[in-house]
Amino acid sequence: MPEAATAPIGSIPHAALTDPYPYYENLRASGRVHRLNTPIGLEAWFVPHYEDARPLLIDPRFSKAAHHSDVVHEDGQKAESSFADNMVSTDPPEHTRLRKLVQKAFTRRRIELLRPRVEQFTDDLLDRMERAGEAELMEDFSYPLPMMVIGELLGIPVEDLADLRHKSVFWFLEEDYAGNPVDHFRARQAAIGEYVRGLIEHRRSHPGDDLVQGLIEARDGENRLSEKELVATVMLLIFAGFLTTVNLITNGMYALVRNPDQQAKLVVQPDLIGSAVEEFLRYDSSLSLIEGHAKEDIEVGGTVIPADSLIIVPVHSVNRDPQAFPDPHRLDITRNPNPHLAFSHGVHHCLGAPLARLEAQVAITALLRRFPDMTLACDPGEVRWHRDFFQRSLHALPLRLKP
C-alpha cells in the first residue's frame, strides 16, 4: 500500500466560494486526492473525482460520527451542540436505528399528503408576485414557501416562522459576522434547540397530527428516540428541510433564466419537471460538500488518507466531473442518466430528498405556468453568491415577470 502523504499542498482561495467550478476543474486535473487548508481553518483531504467519491461514501471506513467532528474552542473546551444526536452525525448501527425510527414518522405518504398545501402556498405567493409585476425571488418566494411547508409539517405556529427563519439562516464567511463564525453558528443552533424543546413539550400536552407528534410516538419494539435524539432530529429537519429547498428553487430558476432555451423547453414540456429538478440539483447544488472522517487508513486514487483525517467530497466538483457527466457545464433538463451526489449516497442519502423534490417540482412548474417569459431584472454581473464554504446560495434574484 502507498505511504500516506504528510504535507498540505495548498489552500482553497476565497474566490472559489462564489465561483467554485474553475477551481475544482483545476483541482481534478492536478490529482486524485488533495490535502488542503479550508477557508474555516481546518485541514482536510479533498476527493474531487466522481469515480473516487461515490464508492468512498459507502465505504464503512468513511465515518460520519459526531465525535469526529467536535468543535474545540481556542481555550480547549468542546462546544456543546444540541444538533449532534441526529442520524446524519452517526454511523451504523446507531444510524440504522435512528433512521428506521424517523422513517416510521417521515413517510412518503405523509410527504405526498402535503402536496395540496404546497400547491396552495405556491399559488398564494404567486398571486402577490403577479400583482406587483416583479419579484425578488428569494424574499418573495424561495424563502417563504419552504418555511411554510416546514411549519405545516412540524406543526409550527405561523407567527413563529419569521423568527425561526432568522435563527436558521447563516453563512459562515460573510463579512457581517464578526468574530468566530463557529461561535455564531453554535449560538444559532442553541436558539433553535431551545425553541424545539418547547415545541416538543407543547406537543406532548397538546397532541396533534404532525411530524413532531409522529416522532414522539415512533417506536421499534421497545426502542424509541431519546429526548436528545428527538430534539436533534427536529432541528435537522428545520435546517436541512428549509435552506436546502430555498437554494434548490432559487439556483434552479437562476439556471433557467440564464439558459432561455431550457426555460422555453420546460414551459412547453412541463412533464420534464422531474428530470429538470435533478439537473438543477447537479448543476448548482445547494450543498457544497459532504464531510466525514477516516476511521482507519483509506487508500483513494493511490494515496493513503491517514486514520482520523477529515475528508471532504466537494459536491460541486463531483457533480461537474466530465468523466461522469458529459458536457458537465451545460444545463440539460433532459439529462439521463443523472446520478448526481447532491443528496449524498448510500446509507446517508438524504431522507428529506422526496420532500425537497416535491416542493421544487410544484414551485418551478407553477412559476413557469404563471410567468413563462420571466427574465432576470438586472445585469448578470450584479447577481452575487454568498461567500460560504458549506452551501451555495444567492444574495438575491430579481426577476421581471411577464404574466
TrEMBL record:
SUPFAM superfamilies referenced in this protein's UniProt entry, alphabetically: Cytochrome P450
TM stretches of this protein: none
InterPro entries, per database record: Cyt_P450, Cyt_P450_B, Cyt_P450_CS, Cyt_P450_sf
Gene3D superfamilies: Cytochrome P450
Top-rank taxon, per record: Bacteria
GO terms of molecular function: heme binding; iron ion binding; monooxygenase activity; oxidoreductase activity, acting on paired donors, with incorporation or reduction of molecular oxygen
Keywords for the protein's UniProt record, in alphabetical order: Heme, Iron, Metal-binding, Monooxygenase, Oxidoreductase
Pfam families tied to this protein: p450
PANTHER family, alphabetized: CYTOCHROME P450 YJIB-RELATED, P450, PUTATIVE (EUROFUNG)-RELATED
Sequence similarity: Belongs to the cytochrome P450 family.
Protein name listed in UniProt: Cytochrome P450
Species this chain originates from: Nonomuraea rubra
